[in-house]
Amino acid sequence: MFIATEKGMIMARILIIYGTTEGHTRKVAEYIANVVRREGHSVDIADSSLYKTPLDKSKVDAVIIGASVHQDKHQASVTHFVKDNQRALAQLPTAFLSVSLIAAEPDEEAQTEARQYISDFLLETAWQPQRSLSVAGALLYTKHDFLKRLLRRYINKRLGREADSLGDQEYTDWEELKRFATDFIKQVVEPRLAAHEAVL
Ligand SMILES: Cc1cc2nc3c(=O)[nH]c(=O)nc-3n(C[C@H](O)[C@H](O)[C@H](O)COP(=O)(O)O)c2cc1C
Q1: pLDDT of amino acid 194
Q2: Do 104 and 155 have their domain in common?
Q3: Does 22 sit in the ligand 1 pocket, CB within 6 Å?
Q4: How many domains does the chain have?
Q5: Which numbered atom of ligand 1 lies nearest the CA of 75?
Q6: pTM score, two decimals?
Q7: What domain range is 150 assigned to?
Q8: 60 and 26 together in one domain
Q9: Taking 60 as the threshold, does the pLDDT of residue 139 lie above it?
Q10: Ligand 1 centroid to 74 CA: how many Å?
Q11: Which ligand 1 atom is nearest residue 19's CA?
């Protein structure tokens, strides 16, 4: 259950679960956690590959889940978390962040593809979050040598740039993320807690 503070404000407990392969979605999740904390709420944040605790909806007021796309799929550990906790998630305010490189491309075709990643994931997991967002990720292609060739081909195809002239690139729109997190808290989580408190 949520906690009423001395000032009468309702402090929600937000759980943030993220899946990451290269580390960028962790950075996104930590950024969201800071935004939520600044709104006066408490946050637990965990990597989906390490988090095995069943979701207890009496101990959490809302859940934000982030995952990145690798070869057209989000992390299997995030898929498992959502499937394993389907009932609890359906009874809580929830939001989904899908981090991909295609979301960095402004054209409609790319944006449709980025949205399709979300639709496919939600269909597969039978989850209906109140909010979802395609987040432009990062290209940390210097991180793993064995990925360079694959990524060079990917970059050339998708962005039409000279891969050799690129270092690590970050495309995330942090202001958009802040708006997304703030709107979720203000428009979904807080009204629900206030309505719940009025009933008690
Ligand atoms: C091996 C590999 C495959 C990728 N496949 C896709 C893809 O199919 N579609 C896409 O939009 N982005 C793709 N990306 C880009 C990642 O989604 C992007 O780099 C993201 O920021 C990775 O987040 P992470 O660091 O949390 O794993 C791929 C990246 C790598 C390294």
Answers
A1: 86
A2: no
A3: yes
A4: 2
A5: 27
A6: 0.90
A7: 139-169
A8: yes
A9: yes
A10: 9
A11: 26
pLDDT at site 131: 98
User: What DSSP assignment string belongs to 94-159?
Assistant: EEEEEEESGGG--SHHHHHHHHHHHHHHHHHHT---SEEEEEE-EE-TTS-GGGHHHHHHHHHHHH
Note the pLDDT tens digit of each residue in 21-51: 999 999 999 999 999 999 999 999 999 999 9
pLDDT grade, residue 72 (50/70/90)? very high
Are residues 137 and 104 in contact, defined by beta-carbon separation less than 8 angstroms? yes
Residue 199 pLDDT: 67
Q: Tell me: do 165 and 189 sit in the same domain.
A: no
DSSP, res 13: E
Task: Judge if the beta carbon of residue 148 lies within 6 A of ligand 1.
Answer: no
Q: Pick the atom of ligand 1 nearest to 150's CA.
A: 1
**Longest CA–CA separation in the chain, Å:** 61
Residues 118 and 108 in one domain: yes
Q: Please check whether residue 80 is in contact with residue 32, taking contact to mean a CB–CB distance below 8 angstroms.
A: no
Pair 184, 160 in one domain: no
Co-location of 159 and 180 in the same domain: no
pLDDT score for 116 = 98
d(CA 188, CA 63): 11
Q: Which atom of ligand 1 is nearest to the CA of 102?
A: 11
Q: Which two tokens stand for residue 116?
A: 């399709």
How many A from CA of 7 to the centre of ligand 1?
44
Q: How far is the CA of 11 from the centre of ligand 1 (A)?
A: 35
Q: Of all protein residues, whose CA lies closest to atom 28 belonging to ligand 1? A: 70
Residue 180 alpha carbon to ligand 1 centre in Å: 21
